[in-house]
Amino acid sequence: MATGKSSMLVDPAWLHRRRNDPKVKVIEIAGMGQEEMQTYKAGHIPGAVCWQWKDMLWDSHQRDFPTPEDFARRCGAAGISNDTTVVFYGEGVQFGFYAWWTFRYCGHRNAKMLDGTRYRWAAEGRPLVTEEPPAASPVAYTPVKRVERMRIHRDKVLAALRKDSTLLLDGRSPEEYHGQRVGGPVGPDVGALRYGRIPGAKHLYFEELLDSNQAFKPVPELKSLFEARGTGPERDIIAYCRMSHRATVLYFALTQLLGFKNVKIYDGSWTEWGNLVGVPVER
Known about the structure:
Strand content: 5-15%
CATH topology of the largest domain: Oxidized Rhodanese, domain 1
Number of domains: 2
Shape: globular
Structural class: alpha/beta
CATH class of the largest domain: Alpha Beta
Distance between the termini: 33 Å
Helix content: 25-40%
CATH superfamily of the largest domain: Rhodanese-like domain
CATH architecture of the largest domain: 3-Layer(aba) Sandwich
């Protein structure tokens, strides 16, 4: 199991050197609580555009991701071609990782994450701006197949509960994991009819992986955190949270920094599991 920095994780210096590269698109993802893109408008990385997470990353009518054809249309309209390098960061941080995971799942190979989002960028003395870049000219984007091995659905999660070779990782807050809340730490306590966790799931709150600038902690520290939950190269790992945003932070660390291969996201997560009839729930 190789460990080290992934080429998909870039630091502010890397991005600064490519600030005028037309083949690099920087995208801030506005997450929950950012419906007015208020943080982006207050100051963002130069050249970055802002996307509302649900508008760009979900199907417009059902709880799913855009079809290959719809994904291609959205990318092309945003000036993104198949070979464009897309660099994401989010507000909150997990929404940038969710966008990276979605792009990779939808088959876009050149997707990267900015380590530390705007916070490390600013902490290293680089400016934030309020000027928005001009609208991109549309380009062609050829539809590609989804990478289905990155994702797992509820029926297969249920079947996996009987397998010792499978490890479930819950990236939610301690209050959610212990059945005290179904909503996140901030905001209304809504989103599911049942409180608790998927039976046997180990808890690893996604924020434990990050430092004060929301950049990843050193790889040895990450390795220790995951090993303490029972990870191993021989195990299949399923990560989930409430809606899978936070789970994608775990996914990135496992696959891109620690070299794990058998990792999947259960994107239905607790908003699906906690509303299903007849599935087991643990507290």
